Hints:
Distance between the termini: 23 Å
CATH superfamily: NAD(P)-binding Rossmann-like Domain
Helix content: 40-55%
Amino acid sequence: MDRSRVVLVTGGNRGLGLEFCRQLAAAGDTVLLGSRDPAKGEAAQAGLGSDRVRVVPLDMTRTHTFADLVSFIDDEFGRLDVLINNAAVLNDLNIQPSDTEEVTLRLNFDVNFFGPYMLTQAMVPLLRQSDFPRVLSLATQVGSFAVITDPDSPLKDDISPAYQSSKIALNAMTALFAKELAPDGIAVNSACPSWVMTDMGHDDLPDYGDAVRPMSASEAVAKMMWLIDGGPDVPTGGF
Length: 239
């Protein structure tokens, strides 16, 4: 694999996004670390200590700014090889659907669905300039219709209506973009990183027993990397 790719990671200043930036830069990629707060992005970049990481301002709720980012990437590189839709919000844990406020629903959909959708759409022309373009969106098992309707699932009692609904929509987005972009050789997939010990995957979540164990961010990212590192035989449209 040619390690001279240009990779954009949303929410790259912490958690899984930061770990993606770390591993990709270490492997030789040019990484654009998207951060809603530029100061936090710069601090994250400094912590990585890699000149292969560049901070770009990226607020997933401000979709009208995506055109500026497209212009920047086009001017600097002429292509985008990998888009990682990592940024997400989870702020309705253990709230029932009938108690979920509209403002919570809208924030979750803005960050977890509308932002990734519009960013992916904006980046398609740049992805078409890549030899092996990839889109990876971070999803979740509790955002799978099959899982939340399975009475035998160890996750059946998890409840975060806005988050789960927005992530189900994200998976639908993945399937639809994958069908459209398959003729262009653009592999579009979603992946669940499992339960990861980050600010979002905190340790006050339920005890799932032996069915689900927490893992480190480095373990989770390493498990997903094949979806962006593989050649033309990488599947598309999967979760």
